[in-house]
Every structure is written in C-alpha cells, then in structure tokens.
Input
Amino acid sequence: MKLISIVVPCFNEEEVFAETYRRLTETMSHIDKTKYDYELIFVNDGSKDKTLEMIREKTISDPRVKGINFARNFGHQIAITAGLDNCKGDAAVVIDADLQDPPSVILDMIAKWEEGYDVIFGKRRDRAGESAFKLLTAKYFYRFINRLSDVDIPLDTGDFRLMDRAALDQFLSMRETYRFVRGMVAWIGFKQTFVEYDRESRFAGSTKYPLKKMLRLASDAILSFSNTPLKIATFVGFITSCIAFVGILYALYMRLFTNNFVEGWTLLMISVLLIGGIILLVLGIIGEYVGRIYGEIKRRPLYIIKDKIGF
Ligand code: UDP
Ligand code: MG
Output
C-alpha cells in the first residue's frame, strides 16, 4: 500500500475550503484503493477568517484529514515546507487551496510517478482569469531568473507538483530561511517531468499574493539562486571608475594647459550625483545579500506550529 500525501497551504481561504476539500476527496476516490491510500494535510498559515475552524471540523469527520496550525502568517513557501515536513507519504503533492490547479491533474501525476519519475510538476498550458499584469510579469520573470541563475526552473510552472519520497527527503534537508521552493526543487535534480494542464481561475475569494508578496518571492528567487547582481555591482563600479579616470585627466588638462578651468561646475555636479547614486545602488545590492546572510545565520526555525490537528 502506497501513501500519497496532499499538502494544501491555506491563508484566509474560507470561501473555497469546502469546495477544495470536496474536489480533492472526489478526485482521490478514483485512485485504486487496493494500491493507494492518501492523507490531506491542510496548513493554516495564520488565517484571520474561519479557515482553521473548517479544517478542524474536517479532521473530525474524515480521518484522512490533518491540520497544521501556524502561530502566525509565515507565507506560502514556508507553509508548503511545513506540510511536506509533516507528511508521511511515499509521494507528496502540493496544491493551492484556490482550485486554480485542478485536482484531477493529480491522477495524471500519479500515473507518471508509476512510470518511474521522481518529480512531476504541473505545467500551465493556459491561465484563465489572471490579470494581464500577472501573466506578463510571470512570463518574463522566469526567463529572466533562468538567465541569471545556474538552475533551470521549468517555465510556466508553479508549486503544483508531485515528489517521490527520495526527492522529497533531499528537498527537506535544505533548511534555508529564504525559500524559493520551485528553484530548490529544480536544483536537486532527479528524474523530472511535467504534465500539462489548463490553469483555471480562482474558485472564490481574491488572491493572497498582493504585489508586495510577489516582489518578495521574486527577490528571494533572484538572490538565493544567483550572484549575478553582485557581479553587476562590480561591473557598474568598474565602468564608473573608468569614466571617473577620464574625468580626472580632463580636469587636470583643463587646469594645467588652459585658462577656462573655473567652468565645469556642471560636469562636477553631474558626476558627484551620478557616482553618489551608483554607490548607493551597489551598496543596496550588497545590503540585500548581507541581510539574507544575517537572516540565515540566526538559524531560527522556519515556522512555529501552534497546534497539530488529527495527527
Ligand atoms: N498562501 C499562503 N500564505 C500566504 C499567501 C498565500 O499559504 O501568505 C496560499 C493560499 O492560500 C493559496 C496559495 O498559497 O492556497 C496561493 O495563493 P494565491 O492563490 O492567493 O496566489 P495566486 O494564485 O494569486 O498567485
Ligand atoms: Mg491562486
């Protein structure tokens, strides 16, 4: 008997929870019951609505349901990690609570798993009901990060995926604080493949990823998987030094060999401002990395669980 764990991060998802539970159990009723069993792990990421009570009710009525209740909101990537940390499955599936990733795709993933693949991610063929802004930024962001970093994150994929226990244990051994799960899974290797699906629009409620959280995820992705920004900093510093050197030669020439050396105030102001700006920019980039070093070195636990329900 193989156990399949399904991990669902939930943040203020009271509007979709009942339907998500219904669709997931409906899908899992189609699996071969002589070969597989499953568990549903809902991670309540500090919701302020009724999500927690709804999870609690389900753990009572359905022994396959388990709940992890965070002490506060730790974010999507950490919620996924906590669910995976606490699952027992021979394979684990991560799926969003909002039904944008259709649960039925899990059956295709299990089929691929049986073919011997270790990581099967969902690849979006079409994304309904997402803003043009999100589509555009997502499209270019993944191409950008792949150019910048040394891992190849599969294009048009999210966190909807199935992982075999062997790959999962490797992933879980990576305890970094700033987590970009997609990149980390790509980094571990193993035999990876994808199943294509059409991404639906959110069943109900609104996105739990406002621009601020999107930007944080993007910066975690770039800074955890690439040193290119530091190299850019060095490069920009080098170029401005060259320009400054030419400027110095010019200033000296004007002072020594001509009479109009009082002029050039404009040039002086421009170069002071320009170089000041560049220094701040470069310091900012370095600061981002130093901040992350500080964050990692504190070695805090990734999340605090207030209570576990139904385990
Ligand atoms: N989520 C979470 N913690 C957060 C934000 C989101 O656990 O701080 C969950 C959310 O409940 C959902 C998933 O992460 O299951 C993806 O969020 P959402 O669908 O709102 O993001 P979008 O699809 O709009 O990018
Ligand atoms: Mg969504």
About this structure: Strands lie at 2-10, 36-44, 65-70, 91-94, 119-127, 157-164, 192-199, 305-309. The chain has two domains: 2-208, 228-297.
